[in-house]
Write a structure and sequence with these properties.
Length: 148
């Protein structure tokens, strides 16, 4: 009986769709990202995260933000800014101050939080939390707000 359960588990795991991983080009400086966004006619995506302690943030990164479909979309359409609030590592003082200022400016109350900006820094949309969206669903959400 245990053998059958083990075989069933192995089959389920092997049948899970594989997501090809790819790292997008994340920066940490919003003013630089906005400058580049103007020049490149792109939007800016802010990712407010607790990268080393927040399970939904880690799931969002693993299942969406570190996938090839998202990275491919971001490469041509977005400037990406990581606004991290880790607990087990210290950020440089200037970066921590900049992140704190962004959290205050955008009224961040929880993580993860994605905020889409136009190239002038005007908020177009926000996604609070992570409910298991796929990379293709995230790209669809970004495209929906692209026209604004």
């Amino acid at each position: 009986m245990r053998w059958m359960a083990l075989v069933s588990l192995m089959i389920m795991v092997s049948c899970q769709p594989e997501v090809e991983n790819a790292e997008a080009d994340w920066g940490s400086d919003l003013p630089v990202a906005l400058e580049d966004a103007v020049a490149e006619k792109r939007r800016v995506l802010l990712d407010f995260t607790g990268s080393d302690w927040c399970p939904p943030c880690q799931a969002l990164h693993r299942n969406v933000l570190a996938t090839k479909p998202f990275a491919d979309y971001a490469k041509d359409n977005l400037k990406l800014v990581l606004v991290d609030f880790p607990r087990s590592k210290l950020l440089p003082k200037e970066q921590q101050q900049a992140n704190d200022a962004l959290a205050k400016r955008f009224k961040v109350n929880g993580f993860p939080l994605l905020i889409l900006l136009d190239s002038a820094g005007v908020e177009l949309a926000r996604m609070d939390g992570y409910d298991g969206e796929s990379a293709s669903e995230m790209v669809a959400w970004l495209e929906k707000h692209r026209a604004h």
